[in-house]
Amino acid sequence: MLRLTDSNTRALLAQPESGMGYQVVEATLSDNKTKRGVAYNAELLLFEEEPRRIMLSTPYLRLLESARSAAGEIKSLRVISRATVTTLSAREPSGSAVHKKAGPAKDGPKEKTKADEVFKRFSAYPNDRRVASDGSLLSGTYATTEEDARNVKTGKDAVARYALPDLAPASNVFTVRPNKDTDIQRGIVEPAFGQPGGGVEVIFTNGTQPKTVTGPMKIPDE
Amino acid sequence: MRIRLEPRWTKRLLELPESGMGYQRVDIRLIDGRELKDVVVFNAEEIEVPDEFARTQIKDVRLHTA
């Protein structure tokens, strides 16, 4: 996390926002490497790999005061078009980043699951109504990829990453192992309900087969 | 405030897609003719409504379309 310099701030203020109060940016560092992150209020930069939960637990001004200065660390900042944001948390088994168009799953292309793909569903409710008694998911149920779920350590992390409207920690984690070629749509959670979003979301447009859902496993609330 | 939906509305909502993980955005029509648009239903069984609507009865629930 970096506190941006006046020069960085001016550069960001000359570029459009990605959403209310923030910009998704690519920073060129002093060693010419590039890193992506989110700039809040054109003054505080949180890199992609840094946990966002700190934004929930610590007052913004305190974060700003305690952040290290970006002086000498950043050569330039460029706001990335939402349409070309790469989801680095979504990776092929080979480890290569999957280039995904940013946008909600409901607008994503229709796809089929691969063999042995695993998904996770975070829920505030141990009696999650979308999980049927036969161990299937109902049609139109959301989940995330197993890979993206690794970014979530607590129920509050899930609320932030998947922009959930219920502030109750989504600490109940269901595991979904659908059959190969199950219909899905993938996308990126947009900021909503005062939460940053940014996680991968998947809709099982026609649900999943019986005995494909297990859990829930409980993770810490915060 | 949050109120619990009658089982018939839960049953209907479970036949409809979610809007995100664990929730649905809906429009509701009340028996007194008023409408509430884009309110959130959690887990297909609890709905968040302004306090003044707490005692009114629901006539219809539909998914909110933006």
Overall shape of chain B: globular
Counted by DSSP, the helix tally of chain B is: 1
Q: Looking across the biggest beta sheet of chain A, what order are the strands in?
A: 9-13-14-11-10-12-15
Q: Could you say which structural class the secondary elements and strand pairing of chain A correspond to?
A: alpha+beta
Shape of chain A: elongated
Mean pLDDT of chain A: 83
- How far apart are the first and last residues' alpha carbons of chain A, in Å? 21 Å
In what range is the share of β-strand residues of chain B? 35-45%
* Helix/strand structural class of chain B: mainly beta
Q: Biggest sheet of chain A: strands, sense, closure?
A: 7 strands, antiparallel
The number of strands of chain A is 15
Unreliably modeled segments of chain B: none
User: Which H/E pattern describes the elements of chain B?
Assistant: EHEEEE
Total DSSP helices of chain A: 5
Beta-strand content of chain A: 25-35%
- Biggest chain-to-chain interface with counts: A-B, 28 and 16 residues
Distance between the termini of chain B: 23 Å
SSE arrangement of chain A, N to C: EHEEEHHEEEEEEEHHEEEE
Structural overview:
The complex is a heterodimer of chains A (222) and B (66). Chain A has 222 residues and is of the alpha+beta class. Helices cover 14% and strands 32% of the residues of chain A. In chain A, the strands form 3 sheets. Chain A has a 7-stranded antiparallel β-sheet. A 6-stranded mixed β-sheet of chain A has the order 5-1-4-3-2-6, with helices on both faces. In chain A, strand 2 (22-29) and strand 3 (34-40) form a beta hairpin. The longest helix of chain A is centred in the first third of the chain and has 8 residues, at 6-13. The two termini of chain A are 21 Å apart. Mean pLDDT of chain A is 83; it is low at 82-101. Chain B is globular, with a radius of gyration of 11 Å. Chain B is built from 1 helix and 5 strands, in the order E-H-E-E-E-E. In chain B, 12% of the residues lie in helices and 42% in strands. Chain B has one helix at residues 7-14, and strands spanning 2-4, 23-30, 35-42, 46-48, 58-63. The N and C termini of chain B lie far apart (23 Å). Chain B has 66 residues and is mainly beta. Chain B has a 5-stranded antiparallel β-sheet, covered by helices on one side. The chains are: A alpha+beta (222), B mainly beta (66). Chain A binds chain B through residues 121-125, 127-130, 138-144, 158, 162-166, 170, 189, 192, 201, 203, 205, and chain B through 10, 14-18, 20-23, 40, 42-45, 48.
